[in-house]
Amino acid sequence: MLTLLKDLRRLRRDLALPRPDRGRSLAVRHVDCGSCNGCEHELILASSPYADLQRFGIGIVASPRHADVLLVTGPVTTRMRSPLLTAYAAMPEPRRVVALGDCAVGTDILGSPDEIVGPADAVLPVDLRIAGCPPTPDTIAAALLELIDRR
Amino acid sequence: MNGYRELIAEALESGWSFAGLYSVGPSGPVRVALAGGTGDIRLETVEPAGGALQSIVDLVPAADWDEREAHDLYGVRFEGHEPLRPLVRHDLDPAAWTVPVLGRDPYQVAVGPIHAGVIESGHFRFHLVGEKILHLDARLFYKHRGLERAAERSTLTDAARFLARACAACAVTNGVAYAQAVEESLGLRPSPELARARTILLELERVWSHLNDLSAVCAGTGLAAGAQRFAGLTERARRLNGRLTGHRFLFGAVAVGRSDLRLDAEAISFAREELAGLRAESLSGWRELVFNRSFDDRLVDVGIVRAKDARRLGATGPAARAAGVAVDVRATSPRLAYDGFAPVTSTRASGDVKSRLEQRQLELVQSVDLLESLLSRPLDASTAETGGAESAMAASRVESPRGATLCAVERDGDRLTRVHLRTGSYANWPVVAFAAVGNMLPDFPLINKSFELCYACADR
ipTM of the predicted structure? Predict the structure, then answer.
């Protein structure tokens, strides 16, 4: 355990990530609406020591009731449309919707037309689009910081 | 059809194993893929009579999902598969999925489709007494995008992108399985350089995937230091992928009939150095996990799948090997550069969460060793060579980080008429539901993480 912590401290020192100059925060709820799992894997690593989103006060929360931002990945499948709307309805206002990745943005959707509703903005008003297939952890981090500034 | 069940029973008797079942079109015909001990694959065709076929699920419990899918998507009925519950179709009441659990004490806990963490979407219905899981119904396919049907309109070359996008975590595996099946059907063989390129990509995928899984199990026990340590190593492995191929998940690196991947001396030496670093640091992290008693306490005798059940249910990949079933498609892959490969199994091999974790660690080191020898010299672009008979359909199996993945293709000239992808995750999902039984509900996330299956390539 001590070695693990020591290694992490060393990694942190070597990376020398800049300290945040912001005093605000963002609570994010992620909803997978039919992705290939790439956006999820990169979103998880946005919290790894290399991007360390938490240092800016940005965290993933378990419930939409605690969230400022709904982060949507994947093209919205017909089966995920209703769960997505339920999650959105559960959020307190003000709330923002972010489309994460090319599928959610709508630039490159693959699948049978009868199984797919469309990009995130076919279901919800989208405030921010993060392009990429999938966007890297650094891109995700930078885009969410921009959203904080916009608020 | 007469003789179908006898054919399957006879094949199983003589050492063939079930590798998948799919319907070609509405009400059939149905194809059953059988894998032999030396890597050969048979596709048996059976014509349903009046849209109905005798079920083989009593002979092969692993065919349960396949038959349900063929019924849902193509209307084939399976006589003797009772009740034939829905799998892919979501227009039926959730009660249709649920096994009735009767009595005064049992109650249900519904989880998903949206989960609390950054996890893919799927629904789990737990039947409990107190905190103990009596039964688990998994209702997945929330992410069903109809990718097979969408791909079936395109040319053989163009369809590759549908297969690659089925799943980011298995993009290379699915891509290689598809490319090999198409090449087999076109009478092409990979050149040694093409085989080496694909093997490098497959092992790079396994390295990041296993590092991610080690992190996920730590997260599943609440050991943040371990989860972050291995997440950091996962990031490094993905950066290595990006440096070598231009994409962190190796998207676009697999094509039908050729490989454009070039690795010069500089890239090779960077990769070898980085892999050596990943090996040293993951071993150092692993030693810390091994000697952490409170971590270890969470893993032992949880989510047990014995060898007998692993075989019966068709478990595959690290999940099967962790139960002592030393089967690995890499040992019988003449189209790839795995000469002399032998699967590793942990000395523990008791099929619990700890065994599955140990299995990942052993395979991670094995993959790094393989890569060191594969990356001993620069890699050049390459193409497949002619050297076999053409056929209208063919299938191929590739070992993904989660187990054996089958891809079957059928074509009419240059056009894809049917493609079917049965991934390691698809095979293992029923095993997760089995492993959960008898455990405490709060241990389910950990059991689930110890398999770390994809929803995306199961749902397609």
Answer: 0.92
